[in-house]
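step=encode ok
step=design start
structure_in=
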């Protein structure tokens, strides 16, 4: 592992610092235009609204750090949330069962991804593009495009639960949503195992140099099974969180949200070549996207322009990451 990459593992990077400065500047500009932006209520609302993206970004970070890539996580989230919702509507249950169903479906589909890559020995981007279409196609076929509205009362009540409540000036309450709580738990768990466990160090080592990782005895296949299983787990949880938020499920509701997740991760400094990236950077990336979206909304910019901005963010972030790593990939030789 190079000194440059070791520095990233210890924490702290120019790109993370740049994102943090951008958050402060953008936040200051928006707060001047709209003083309500800096309120606690708006901050908690942003966290709740971006919990779905944040959870997926944590999973994608682990995949990218390992040197792999996953295009199918939105399809996994969609399948998991649909099967979860259909199950609790038909057979009932409780919130623990809902979490268990979503998590099980997510992990299963994630392991399918890893198995396809390992057994067929094809690039992960090709394999997950294929499974993306397979997962979506099977869901659309069996669901016949039906939406699910009539979720149980206990599920709706849990979606409105607040971990901590505050009072507005008019006496009404707001607080930390269950979606935000799930996001916080995911962030802490992901940061903990990446930074402090042998498994986390193995994920970084595999992404940094898979050949060297195999030579020192790391089982790359098992690590791949773990990272895709973990991505699937978080995709299932993200699908559940989205359902708790909107209280409906549609087979095509999440289509097109992949780019925002990728933008958050690469904006935070994760490199597509593997071995580099932190949860801290990913959180900063999600925060910047949330503030940017909020600012565009307050400025009444048409929603279509948000996708343009996200595309530019991805392009700039990947370019900066390539130059930080020693120049564009097309000008570097293997080290």
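sequence_out=
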């Amino acid at each position: 592992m190079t000194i440059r990459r070791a520095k990233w593992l210890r924490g702290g990077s120019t790109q993370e610092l740049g994102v943090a400065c951008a958050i402060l500047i953008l936040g200051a500009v928006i707060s001047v235009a709209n003083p309500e932006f800096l309120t606690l209520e708006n901050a908690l609302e942003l966290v709740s609204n971006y919990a779905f993206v944040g959870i997926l970004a944590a999973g994608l970070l682990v995949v990218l750090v390992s040197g792999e890539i996953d295009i199918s996580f939105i399809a996994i989230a969609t399948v998991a949330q649909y099967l979860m919702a259909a199950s609790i509507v038909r057979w009932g249950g409780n919130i623990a069962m809902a979490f268990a169903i979503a998590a099980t479906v997510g992990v299963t589909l994630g392991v399918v991804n890893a198995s396809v890559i390992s057994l067929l020995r094809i690039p992960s981007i090709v394999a997950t593009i294929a499974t993306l279409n397979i997962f979506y196609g099977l869901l659309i076929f069996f669901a016949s495009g039906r939406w699910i509205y009539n979720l149980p009362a206990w599920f709706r009540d849990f979606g409105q639960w607040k971990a901590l409540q505050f009072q507005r000036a008019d006496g009404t309450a707001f607080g930390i949503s269950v979606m935000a709580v799930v996001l916080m738990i995911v962030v802490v768990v992901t940061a903990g195992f990446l930074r402090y466990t042998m498994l986390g160090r193995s994920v970084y080592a595999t992404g940094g140099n898979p050949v060297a990782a195999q030579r020192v005895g790391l089982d790359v296949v098992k690590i791949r099974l773990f990272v895709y299983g973990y991505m699937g787990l978080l995709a299932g949880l993200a699908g559940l969180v989205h359902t708790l938020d909107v209280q409906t499920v549609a087979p095509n509701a999440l289509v097109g949200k992949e780019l925002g997740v990728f933008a958050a991760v690469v904006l935070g400094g994760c490199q597509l070549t593997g071995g580099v990236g932190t949860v801290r950077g990913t959180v900063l990336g999600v925060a910047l996207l949330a503030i940017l979206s909020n600012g565009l909304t307050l400025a009444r910019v048409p929603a279509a322009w948000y996708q343009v901005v996200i595309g530019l963010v991805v392009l700039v972030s990947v370019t900066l990451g390539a130059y930080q790593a020693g120049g564009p990939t097309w000008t570097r030789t293997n080290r």
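step=design ok
step=annotate ok -> The chain has a mean pLDDT of 86.
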